[in-house]
Design a protein that fits this description.
about 475 residues, 4-stranded parallel beta sheet, 4 helices, globular, 30 strands, Pectate Lyase C-like, mainly beta, about 10% helix, 21-stranded parallel beta sheet
């Protein structure tokens, strides 16, 4: 597929139009992704598993006035439905309305389904978010050392879990949490919107996530995860509102997502310094495709900075980024250890970027002063091809670590249009090594030009990862409540 400036302009115009319409219409998503609620109370949608039993939150005393806490109703419903885990599983239906709730925990063989006009509102009562110990691969909370608040939708040690809907909304009401964070009034790290730990066979799809207190979607220590058709919106200056953060996870597929964020749209992680090294649980076999990102102060896709369990075999394609600080960013530092390797990216359309290529070996944030200064990360096998960018300030800033260079960097078929006020130096490189072909403007000497005949280098893997073999089932219910 040949990329051109005409192509990237068309992609940008199309994407901006879509995002504007989506924002104005509460981001309901494409009709092809929608489930259908038919007359007579029947329900149809696609999922990795269909359920034999169903109930509505109203069956458990749920009140959709946006003021009454439904935390107990959610947990009572899920506890009741858990008895059907070995009998075809169960789904909890959330009707139209505003459902205020604190944190609640899911169960196995379970589906949480939101009507298109259902809005889950995160409570602003901190007491409705129990405190958890820090993640073992982090050693402390991200905001505060004392641990973290439980996420709004939480689960651990689960199998076969679906969180989906007809593009219903989960609103984290994050301003309350952001203000307390900036004022230093939080004892614990802010809650995420959706977090599943030590779980397998997870689907998160067809939802709109607004104003998360911190990260939006955080699968951690988990496997076989599908994240599809998610729209995530947060103010571009909101703190740490990462979109989707696969963390020490294996076999993950993220596709068809639209993210406007105050931080990285997707951040791939695997633990922090000595804690991540000791835990030793990498993120690997990750697919990211058809992502649209707006994040003026962060990256479309970030690898790290917490990568001390290792990151390997990441495949990203068809990435659109607009007014985003960088496209794919690698963040690491002395003390991180482990590796980021076998990274493959193709077909990026980018408009208005500070940097296209950004790698940093000097990302110094540490959990404490106990990290090992001899734990040097290995960054190698980083491949980019078929990239078109416009209105760029600096083409690339690639900074490895002295004595520990980043190697095996490959770039081919890359056209970068520089901004009228671009920096005089298009590329800044140190402690890196690699090859390029068909890259404009010409890259730094550390990335040796192989000539136009090598423009097909930086091959994208042709094998199929297991997560791409997972297919959705057509689920249909008559809404016969238990």
């Amino acid at each position: 597929m040949e990329f051109s400036r005409r192509h990237v302009r068309a992609q940008v115009i199309k994407t901006v139009s879509v995002l504007v319409v989506v924002a104005l219409l509460s981001l309901r998503g494409a009709e092809s992704r929608r489930a259908r609620i038919q007359q007579g109370g029947s329900l149809e949608y696609k999922a990795i598993s269909c359920r034999s039993h169903s109930a509505s939150l109203t069956d458990f005393g749920g009140v959709a006035d946006g003021k009454t806490s439904n935390t107990k109703a959610f947990q009572a419903a899920i506890d009741k439905l858990s008895q059907y885990a070995s009998d075809g599983g169960a789904q909890l239906y959330i009707p139209a309305g505003k459902w205020l709730t604190g944190s609640f925990s899911l169960t196995s063989h379970f589906t949480l389904y939101l009507h298109k006009d259902a809005v889950l509102l995160a409570s602003q009562d901190m007491n409705e978010f129990p405190a958890l110990k820090p993640l073992p691969s982090y050693g402390r909370g991200r905001d505060a050392a004392a641990g973290r608040y439980t996420s709004l939708i939480f689960g651990t040690n689960l199998t076969d879990v679906v969180v989906t809907g007809d593009n219903g909304t989960i609103d984290g009401q994050g301003a309350f949490w952001w203000q307390n964070f900036h004022r230093g009034k939080l004892k614990y790290t802010r809650p995420y919107l959706i977090e599943l730990m030590f779980s397998d066979q997870v689907q998160i799809s067809n939802l709109t996530l607004l104003n998360s207190p911190s990260w939006n979607v955080h699968p951690v220590y988990s496997s076989n995860i599908l994240v599809q058709g998610i729209t995530i919106i947060a103010p571009v200056k909101s703190p740490n509102t990462d979109g989707i953060n696969p963390d020490s996870c294996t076999n993950v597929r993220i596709e068809d997502c639209y993210i406007v964020s105050g931080d990285d749209c997707i951040a791939v992680k695997s633990g922090w310094d000595e804690y991540g090294i000791a835990f030793g649980w990498p993120t690997k076999q990750l697919i990211i495709r058809r992502l649209t990102c707006i994040s003026p102060y962060s990256a479309a896709i970030a690898l790290g900075s917490e990568m001390s369990g290792g990151i390997q075999d990441v495949r990203a394609e068809d990435i659109v980024a607009i007014q985003t600080e960088s496209a794919v960013r690698i963040k690491t530092a002395i003390g991180r250890g482990a590796y980021v390797k076998d990274i493959y990216v193709k077909r990026m359309s980018l408009h208005t970027m500070k940097w296209v290529f950004l790698m940093s070996g000097n990302y110094k944030a540490h959990p404490d002063n106990k990290y090992d200064p001899n734990a040097l990360p290995v960054i190698q096998g980083i491949n980019y091809r078929d990239v078109v960018a416009e209105n760029v300030t600096v083409a690339g800033r690639l900074e490895g670590i002295s004595g520990d260079p980043f190697t095996g960097i490959c770039m081919s078929n890359v056209t970068i249009g520089m901004a009228s006020k671009a920096k005089k130096m298009s590329w800044r490189c140190s402690d890196v090594a690699g090859i390029t072909s068909g890259v404009t403007p010409p890259p730094c000497d550390l990335l040796a030009d192989q000539g136009p005949k090598k423009v097909t280098t930086c091959d994208f893997p042709e094998d199929t990862l297991p997560i791409d073999m997972v297919e959705f089932k057509q689920c249909s219910y008559r809404m016969s409540y238990v």
